[in-house]
Amino acid sequence: MWPQPGKERTMTESLSSYVAKWVGGYRQKQQAIPLFNPTLTRGFSLEQKRLFFERLNELRRHFNALLGDLMAFAPSQAYKQALLSNLMEETGVSKDGTNMVSHDELYNISARAVGVEMIQSIHRGRTKTPYGKEFNEKFSAWIIEQLAVYGAEKGWNRIWAAVEAYEKLDNVDYPAFLELAKSFGLTGEALVFFDIHVSVEHYEHGEKLLEDVWERDPDSVRAGFQFIEDIQLTALRALSDDISTYAA
């Protein structure tokens, strides 16, 4: 019997090969978004630069809250520890008591470089957008949906793939965000938040667990990665349109 279409690929394709191709395809679509065109963004007004930090904040912060929920759903200590490692780094909690700065505070430092105080912007509702709300709600609802529709084991496989895809995009989106910040004229400590996320290893914290899922259930890995690609690109395109068309 001849192998069914797609079966041979499942048997021979490695996770690293799949992820590399996925990243390449994603990056090509990301780079087509006007927000990542330095020729355009160098001409942004101060208000547009401020709006970027305010609007991006809602898209990037929600995942920290999700990490706690995911730890509650996680089926083993290995998953819980991988999630906890990420959360500790995000919130500036060290294992040995060493002082660390949270990613939120690093982001605040960047925002202050263009005159934005994030607490004030959040309080005034300037971080709220329909596309930010849709992104965050869709991500949360999707997690519950996987468990409800596919059951605990397969549902978690799909969830973990989505978590890892989201973490992998730190290393893909933040080089573009770093160049964007530089096009705003930011320098020095105002770039630290972006620099850190260019090389952060959140994906690597859970990579071995993802490899185990890939061996058992590669279709769930593909489903999780596709979900993240779709909602992330949709949100970034909306963010780009919001800022590019803004008139003070």
Radius of gyration: 19 Å
Approximate helicity band: over 70%
Task: Describe the main β-sheet briefly.
Answer: none
In round numbers, the mean pLDDT is 93
Number of strands: 0
End-to-end CA span? 66 Å
Share of residues in strands: under 5%
Unreliable stretches covering 5 or more consecutive residues = none
The sequence of SSEs as H and E is HHHHHHHHHHHHH
Structural class estimated from helices and strands: mainly alpha
- Helical run tally: 13
Shape: globular
Task: Describe, in plain words, how this protein is organized in 3D.
The model has no long low-confidence stretch (mean pLDDT 93). The protein has helices at 7-12, 15-31, 38-41, 46-73, 77-91, 103-112, 118-123, 130-168, 170-183, 192-199, 202-205, 207-216, 218-244. The chain starts with 6 loop residues before the first helix and ends with a helix. It has 248 residues and is mainly alpha-helical. It contains 13 helices and no strands. 76% of the residues lie in helices and 0% in strands.
Indicate the topology.
Blueprint: H1 7-12, H2 15-31, H3 38-41, H4 46-73, H5 77-91, H6 103-112, H7 118-123, H8 130-168, H9 170-183, H10 192-199, H11 202-205, H12 207-216, H13 218-244
Quick rundown:
The chain has helices at 7-12, 15-31, 38-41, 46-73, 77-91, 103-112, 118-123, 130-168, 170-183, 192-199, 202-205, 207-216, 218-244.
